[in-house]
Design goal:
307 residues, Rhopdopsin 7-helix transmembrane proteins, mainly alpha, single chain
Length: 307
């Protein structure tokens, strides 16, 4: 008999950020503003890049896809968390919980792959400028974006296919504002040691490998710029420092949570907020709105809309 059919749990209790009623209302207002800002800024970037022919380049094509996936990453759980601040009982159905796990891994893994693709684009542009147009063709960029989504889906399915059939027959309290895989599988009424090892070798390895690739590519870019121009070094260092900061805020919590799935740390809930709420807002600020071409295009678009 399929173990998933004997599960007695039909819903899970979510433990969002705790506090008195007044604090819950503050959280509601704060995260509502944050979420609306994420959607507004990221869609503004997408619309600006689509509408401005000057920005129809590989770098901005990848950037527009990053903005889109940031909206997806913040939407899979944040609206539910915001509504839960007004609810006394914060629950989610079994199917809804599995859906959150699925979409979390699709979007998070897809963003990791996309950030690596963007770093590769910058590496080619700076280290092999004469071959940039040939290497970063439209077909190549499209393949990188499609590949990011495909890897994200395959990774998520590999995680969920084992989780959905676990028997859940007792504890149903998830110590987070959304269903996160390390927390959910610990509630199963069976030994999940092998599943946690699988998660360690899958999610942890993907996050760690992507992070190392990003840092390596940034280091190569800095070394190349330093050899060519001492003037450009300061600008490149400032730009890449901002990029590394955002990448660390995104990858750091993922690596911490998924590379040590056997423990349960109180900080996990706070760390989850970084890569699902804060980073999707930082990405457009760091990658796009500090760019003169994007700022000029945004102003042009705003003038067209107002007129």
């Amino acid at each position: 008999m399929d173990e998933g059919n004997i599960s007695g749990v039909t819903e899970f209790l979510l433990h969002s950020l705790s506090g008195p009623r007044e604090l819950q209302l503050f959280y509601f207002a704060f995260f509502t503003l944050f979420y609306l800002s994420i959607v507004l800024w990221n869609f503004l970037i997408v619309l600006t890049i689509i509408s401005e022919p000057v920005l129809h380049t590989p770098m901005y094509f990848l950037l527009s896809n990053l903005s889109f996936i940031d909206v997806c990453l913040s939407t899979f759980a944040t609206p539910k968390m915001i509504v839960d601040f007004l609810m006394e009982h914060k629950t989610i159905s079994f199917e809804g919980c599995m859906a959150q796990i699925f979409f979390l891994h699709v979007f998070a893994c897809g963003e990791m792959m996309l950030l690596v693709a963007m770093a590769y684009d910058r590496y080619v542009a700076i280290c092999r400028p004469l071959h940039y147009a040939a290497i970063m063709s439209l077909r190549k960029c499209t393949a990188l974006v499609v590949g990011s989504w495909v890897i994200g889906v395959l990774h998520s399915v590999s995680q969920l296919v084992f989780t959905v059939n676990l028997p859940f027959c007792g504890p149903n309290k998830v110590d987070s504002f959304f269903c996160d895989l390390p927390l959910v599988i610990k509630l199963a009424c069976t030994n999940t040691y092998l599943l946690q090892v699988l998660m360690l070798s899958d999610s942890g390895l993907i996050a760690m490998t992507s992070f190392v690739l990003l840092l390596t590519s940034y280091s190569i870019i800095l070394f190349t710029v330093q050899r060519r121009s001492s003037v450009g070094m300061a600008k490149a260092r400032a730009t890449l420092t901002a990029h590394v900061t955002v990448v660390t805020l995104f990858f750091g919590p993922c690596i911490f949570i998924y590379a040590w799935p056997f423990g349960n740390f109180p900080a996990d809930k706070v760390l989850s907020i970084f890569y699902t709420v804060f980073t999707p807002l930082l990405n457009p600020l760091i990658y796009a709105l500090r760019n003169k071409e994007v700022i000029t295009a945004v102003r042009k678009l705003s003038r067209q809309v107002s007129s």
